[in-house]
Each structure stands twice: as C-alpha cells, then as structure tokens.
Amino acid sequence: MTPKTHKLHRKKPIIALAQIRYSGISRENIDIIKRYIRLAKSRGADIVCFPEGCLSLRCRKNPFGLNHCFIKEIKEECRRNKIWCIINDDFVVRGETYSLALLINRNGRGVGKYRKINLSGDNELVVAGNHIKVFKTDFGKISIVICWDLILPELFKRIRKAGAEIVFCPAQWHHEEESYKKKYKIRDLKLLRSLVTTRAYENLYFVALCNPLTKRKDLVSYSAICSPHKMLREIVNKEGLITAQIDLEQIDKLHKLYKIEKK
C-alpha cells in the first residue's frame, strides 16, 4: 500500500506596520525604529515596514548613503531579532538621489532596493525610478511601492504579473485641502482607504500601507493591512504597531478561481 501524500501547506506569515511619530532628530528616529523592530519581533512578526522618510523626516539637504552608520545599526537590529524590515528615505546611489526603500533580511543584509517611480512633493534633487521589483523572501513574494505610486493601477497590475503576493507601501500621504474645502481630512482618509482596498481587490494580493503619525495638518496618519476581500487591520491618528497573520494560500486559490492572467 502506498502511503498517502499530503500537500505541503505554506507558512502564514505575520506582517507588521509601524505607524511611528517622527522626531526632528535623525538619531532619535533610529532609536524609535530599533525599538519598533524589537516590538514587532515580540509579536511574532516576520517583517516590519516603516513609513516613508522614516530616518530623517525627508528634510535633509544631504541624503543618506546606503553605508551610513544609521543603516548599519538598523541592519544589526534586524540580525539580532531575526526579522525582515523595510525602511525608506532619500538615498544617494551612484551619484543620483532617489526616494529609495531598502529591504533588509533576517541576517541583517540589504537584499533589495526599490526606487520611487511616481514623484510628488519630493525633494527637488530626487530622480524617479523606473523599475518594479518583486523579492523572494522565506515567507513569500513581496513588492514595494512608495506613497504616490499608490494611484497608478497599471503599476500594481505589473507587480501582480511579476508574481507578488504582498505589496508594501511606505508613505507620507498629503491632504489636498483646496480640493475639498470642508471636511477634507475625513474625505482624504476615505480616499486613501478606498485606494488600498481597490488595489488589493483588483489584483488579488495583500496590500500594506504605512504612514507616520504627525502633527502636520496636511498629512494623513493612517496605516492599513488589507486582503483581497477584507480590511484586516487599521490604525488612525495614533502611534502604534499593527500586525496581521495572512494566508498566502488564499492568493493561490483566488488566482485559480478568477483565472488571473499570468506573466
């Protein structure tokens, strides 16, 4: 009698978003990031994503280099805690300045870079990127976009065709007060939530948006983790870490059900 074969079940990773309050001092921001890396690990997270410009509040005239001592500290914190991490700021790479998201693995190594494609309100020195990226991790295939990239449905479609299962979006989302006149904060929050849910649903993957907590009246303090059919976790107008355990087998089933176009 031949033994029964059992289908291997995929790991159900826990993803975390850190809606942190920025300090005007980079040293303090690095300490906050390291603290939230430890907190994410204590909650069983496989990866933690931080908001756009998390190192310096995007106000530096001299962008970071990828070998800056602060980056080394964050990498070492990831290594100690055996956790993946996404950070973003303006970085100089080969003489050009980019709004760049850096993916760090459990061993504290930088294993992926994404350069923001759709610029809006960025440092005038920043150059737009032009390539999507999908990264293989030990828990699934992930991609990264940054802030205003969220408005581009074709960009997310390309990411889906490239095989992504989770898309992380570090952001600093601005209110457009003149567009609404009244209740613009409420309306912009609804707009941002609809973009997250729409991108997840139309592409049948998970989307995780991470903004900072800020006192600035023109910024939206909202972060969310969304599945193709359901909002899993949200945080609004307060500092904190949100986590969600996600089932990547759900993505495989939905792709078969809806006969999603492959590459």
The CATH superfamily turns out to be: Carbon-nitrogen hydrolase
**CATH fold-type name:** Nitrilase/N-carbamoyl-D-aminoacid amidohydrolase
DSSP helix count?
6
Rounded mean pLDDT score: 90
Question: Can you tell me the number of structural domains?
Answer: 1
Total count of strands: 13
- In CATH, what is the class? Alpha Beta
Oligomerization category of the chains in this entry? single chain
Kindly state the percentage of residues in helix: 25-40%
How much strand? Answer: 25-35%
Q: What is the end-to-end distance?
A: 41 Å
Given the helix and strand composition, which structural class is it?
Answer: alpha/beta
User: Quick one: overall form?
Assistant: globular
Provide the CATH architecture: 4-Layer Sandwich
Largest sheet: 7 strands, mixed
Poorly predicted segments: 1-7
Characterise this structure.
This protein has helices spanning about 25-40, 70-80, 155-160, 175-180, 185-205, 250-260; strands at about 15-20, 45-50, 65, 85-95, 95-105, 110-115, 135, 140-145, 165-170, 205-210, 220-225, 230-235, 240-245. By secondary structure, the chain is an alpha/beta fold. The protein has a single domain (about 15-255), classed as Carbon-nitrogen hydrolase (Nitrilase/N-carbamoyl-D-aminoacid amidohydrolase), CATH 3.60.110. Helix 1 (about 25-40) packs parallel to helix 2.
